[in-house]
Amino acid sequence: MGRGKIAIKKIENPTSRQVTYSKRRLGIMKKAKELTVLCDAQVSLIMFSSSGKLADYCSPSTEIKDVFERYQQVTGIDIWDAQYQRMQDTLKNLKEINHNLQKEIRQRKGENLEGLEIKELRGLEQKLEESIKIVRQRKYHVIATQTDTYKKKLRSTREIYTTLLHELEVEDENQRRSIVAEDLIGVYDSAILMANQQRTVSQICRM
């Protein structure tokens, strides 16, 4: 029993459509390679999936550009004309945007104001006020940040000073205790020496 005939129409299910494209893409690429080998033909194949993914094939020792140029010569159709026109339109649009930006910059600097109507001058004034407001907010934010940083550094410096002062006081106290202990030891040694001397004198007197 042969396979059922598939109706040639768009597959509505996206998953099935992608699977079908993947399978048939491999098949048509295989056929293009076979045609190149069997018939010594120059074949150039370009495909885009519904998601925009590119798949292409070009017969060996042949550049796609050469195939396009031969196609243009045979058909008389300039396939690059539309692309060139789009590039020209994009360039023109970018130049216009650049011109308007340059003009707006000069006007914000107080230049080229001649010929502007009241409405345009008011609009320019409003833009300047909004810009000044943004700059002022940024300035206040920077000042607040710097102030907080200074306070943190000052607090850290005070803590370090307090710690060093405490360590110095502890060291001084230890030194004083060491001196008192040395003095007591000296007094104790002197007392022992005097006692020994008195004992020796007493013994001599008894003799």
Automatic annotation (TrEMBL):
Keyword match DNA-binding: yes
GO biological process, one term: positive regulation of transcription by RNA polymerase II
Keyword Transcription attributed: yes
Top-level taxon of the source organism: Eukaryota
Pfam families, alphabetized: K-box, SRF-TF
Gene Ontology annotations for the cellular component aspect, listed alphabetically: nucleus
Keywords assigned: Coiled coil, DNA-binding, Nucleus, Transcription, Transcription regulation
Signal peptide positions on this chain: none
Cell compartments where the protein resides: Nucleus
Gene Ontology terms, MF aspect: DNA-binding transcription factor activity; protein dimerization activity; RNA polymerase II transcription regulatory region sequence-specific DNA binding
Every K-box domain range: 84-174
Coiled coil: 77-138
Start and end residues of each MADS-box domain: 1-61
PANTHER family linked: SERUM RESPONSE FACTOR HOMOLOG
Protein name: DEFICIENS-like MADS-box transcription factor
The species this protein was found in: Gongora galeata
Gene expressing this chain: DEF2
